[in-house]
Design brief:
This protein is mainly alpha-helical and 209 residues long. The protein is 54% helix and 11% strand. It has 9 helices and 6 strands; from the N terminus they run βαααααββαβααββα. The strands form 3 sheets. The protein has a two-stranded antiparallel ribbon with strand order 1-4. A two-stranded antiparallel ribbon has the order 2-3. Strands 5-6 form a two-stranded antiparallel sheet. The longest helix has 29 residues. It is elongated and about 85 Å long.
């Protein structure tokens, strides 16, 4: 019988960049607002009731798709676009301008078209959050991270009793690179910039942490 002693590696979350997530979500909201404005222009141009699939096709197909849809409503199919649009009181130029970059913008984020509006999908939001996360990449990093958390717990307890001067963390920072003092949270936290450079053998790949 064969037995396996190697345990399966499980990455641990080192850091989640909340400011980066907020920044990208803001970009996504700004883009979806622009796309919804483009849809309003296209919908008024084409007329009629358009479902979510129609609107998504317009964003992906751009101005060509909008023209294809309105041509189906021409009263004079043998006449050219200029004649038909003029007879319908339609101006294509604002539509062409509004949909100029709709395909690339729509595909820039994982959007859904729901109830007539462009929104960021649940999966799209999840991927944005995951993209802003830093995870351990090997068992040596996991071990160092666990050790760093234990050291932080002891240092923070010592600081709470006044055994460590919170105004000068330099000696400890130099001696224990696994941890750092956070001016934001006012306590010791694992030093992610150091931990993520630990290779599978426990060595340090680079400096600058």
């Amino acid at each position: 019988m064969t037995t396996t002693t190697d345990k399966e590696f499980k990455p641990q979350l080192l850091y989640k960049d909340e400011s980066r997530i907020k920044e990208i979500l803001k970009q996504s909201d700004d883009t979806s607002e622009k796309l919804n404005q483009a849809l309003d222009v296209a919908t008024n141009f084409i007329g009629g009731d358009l479902n979510d699939e129609d609107k998504e096709n317009i964003l992906l197909g751009g101005f060509d798709k909008a023209m294809e849809m309105i041509r189906a409503k021409y009263q004079f199919p043998d006449a050219d676009d200029e004649f038909n649009l003029k007879s319908m009181g339609k101006d294509a130029e604002p539509v062409e301008l509004a949909l100029r970059s709709s395909k690339s913008l729509y595909r820039g984020f994982e959007y859904d078209t729901l109830n007539g509006k462009v929104i960021l999908s649940g999966n799209g939001k999840k991927n944005i959050e995951e993209g802003a996360c830093t995870y351990t990449k090997n068992e040596a990093q996991n071990a160092a991270f666990d050790l760093a958390k234990r050291i932080c717990k002891n240092l923070n307890e010592a600081m709470s009793y006044g055994f460590i001067d919170s105004s000068d963390q330099t000696p400890i920072a130099q001696g224990v690179k696994l941890t750092k003092y956070s001016t934001e949270t006012k306590n010791y936290v694992p030093n992610v910039n150091f931990l993520k450079h630990i290779d599978p053998f426990g060595g340090i790949r680079s400096s600058g942490y």
